[in-house]
TrEMBL record:
This is Transporter. NCBIfam families: Na_transp. Keywords: Membrane, Symport, Transmembrane, Transmembrane helix, Transport. InterPro entries: Na/ntran_symport, SNS_sf, YocR/YhdH-like. PANTHER family: TRANSPORTER. It comes from Halorhodospira neutriphila. It comes from the Bacteria. It is a multi-pass membrane protein.
Length: 454
């Protein structure tokens, strides 16, 4: 296989290029928008503990497996999963894994872009001082009015998707890398500022108690499934995004070391987002379980109260939009790479097709907040179905298949060489986890969520 394949970022020039791109993929709406709102919906402490366990015991080994599969296959995920089974005497049916990932990517991108559109919309409104001094009611009303307007949502959804497609089609080379390098630390700093604000002006002690005192009795089987799905979603694993990025990774780079950095950064940002949101929620008497609007209402209220809040708010929503962009780009990579590699499409056309299809499905999500809000299946509207199906079902299912393939189909010699753990015991731990712990945990959580395990 050619060692000089071009990624959308150009060839990874260094170990850092991969780490930056993968961190850009991981850190996004999952940390800042989704983590706080599902923590709030699922009651806090116990949920967070299960989430952290899923990251460590399931997410980390699966991320290593995804990177190693990508690097060993050196093609788009679909073609990697077409080539590798034959090489190791497994059935061609394994290629379904690649297609499952592409499908999951479409579903994720379709609603991801709509929510990223909300963040974009909040940039000009924050700058105009809309939230300055506003009370909680006014801030809540602003959010519901935004959701009630399909035209506005469509506009911002379209803008975000066009931005994503524009960047992917141009093959950003070093542009995005530089952006991630500068803007991610800035987002991190700004989150620290907000945590600091929460310490001074919010109900910080209560927030700590809320986030870190587990009450396992209140945790349903379904909540555990949601926590596991969130671990996959947040780490960008289970659909081939990290596999695609891994296919451009130099064979000298240490997979365990890279994984540790990416997973660590991703987890810290999620916890910081929680620490920024919940002190305000609890001090202002807002509802932690209010759903997907949680950060938009809470944080814009907080910005409205803090000194120089219009400035910080504008900067924050800009940085969140950027974080969403660097994630959306990675969601498009598996499908785009496939069209370019196998169908010989030119990159701009491939990008337009992928983004266009996801944009179209996204319109369903736009309408689910207004015109179609009454249209429900199993009590879920269109957007909720997309989110649940992709995040809680398809990503863990992808992870299960990745684990079985990497643990049982690939020979130990191949995985040991690809992973290049610094010590033998590290590899043994990984292999034990990927063969037994990960598949068992995912299966048990799936079955348990159906309420079959008492
Ligand atoms: N990890 C991203 C986030 O936390 O916002 C979302 C995401 C990116 C999910 C890439 C899946 C993916 F393949
Ligand atoms: Na994330």
């Amino acid at each position: 296989m050619p060692e000089n394949r071009q990624s959308i970022h150009g060839e990874w020039g260094s170990r850092w290029a991969f780490i930056l791109a993968a961190t850009g993929s991981a850190v996004g709406l999952g940390n800042i928008w989704r983590f706080p709102y599902i923590v709030g919906e699922n009651g806090g402490g116990a949920f967070i503990l299960v989430y952290l366990a899923c990251i460590l015991l399931v997410g980390v080994p699966v991320m290593m497996a995804e990177i190693l599969l990508g690097r060993h296959g050196r093609q788009s995920p679909i073609n990697t999963m077409r080539a590798l089974p034959g090489r190791y005497g497994a059935r061609p049916a394994w290629q379904t894994l690649g297609w499952l990932g592409v499908l999951a990517g479409f579903l994720v991108l379709s609603f991801y872009s709509v929510v990223a559109g909300w963040a974009l919309a909040y940039v000009p409104y924050s700058a105009a001082g809309t939230f300055t001094g506003a009370d909680t009611q006014a801030v809540e009303q602003f959010f519901s009015q935004l959701l009630a307007s399909p035209g506005q949502l469509l506009l911002w959804h379209t803008l975000f998707m066009a931005l994503t497609a524009g960047i992917v089609s141009r093959g950003v080379e070093r542009g995005l890398e530089k952006g991630v390098q500068l803007l991610m630390p800035l987002l991190f700093l700004l989150l620290l500022v907000m945590v600091g604000y929460g310490m001074g002006a919010g109900a910080f002690t209560e927030a700590l108690a809320y986030m870190f005192t587990p009450d396992f009795g209140a945790l349903s089987g379904k909540a555990v499934l949601v926590a596991m799905g969130q671990a996959f979603f947040s780490m960008s694993i289970g659909l081939g995004a990290i596999m695609a990025y891994g296919s451009y990774l130099s064979s000298r780079s240490s997979v365990p070391g890279n994984t540790g950095l990416i997973a660590g950064a991703d987890t810290i940002v999620a916890i910081l987002a929680g620490l920024a949101v919940f002190p305000i929620v609890l001090a202002a008497g807002l509802d932690p379980g209010s759903g997907p609007g949680l950060i938009f209402v809470t944080l814009s209220y907080g910005f409205g109260q803090m000194p120089a809040g219009a400035f910080f708010g504008t900067l924050f929503f800009l940085l969140v939009s950027f974080a969403a962009l660097s994630s959306a780009i990675s969601i498009m990579e598996p499908a785009t790479a496939y069209l370019v590699e196998t169908r010989r499409w030119r990159r701009p056309w491939a990008t337009t097709a992928v983004a266009g299809a996801a944009w179209l499905v996204g319109i369903g999500s736009v309408l689910s907040f207004n015109a179609w809000s009454g249209v429900k299946l199993f009590g879920l509207n269109f957007q909720q179905i997309m989110e649940y199906l992709s995040t809680s079902i398809m990503l863990p299912l992808g992870g299960l298949l990745i684990a079985v393939f990497a643990g049982w189909v690939l020979p130990a010699q191949v995985t040991a060489e690809e992973l290049s753990f610094p010590a033998q015991w590290g590899y043994r731990l990984w292999r034990g986890a990927i063969r037994y712990l990960v598949p068992a945990a995912i299966l048990v959580i799936f079955i348990n969520s159906l309420g079959l395990l008492g």
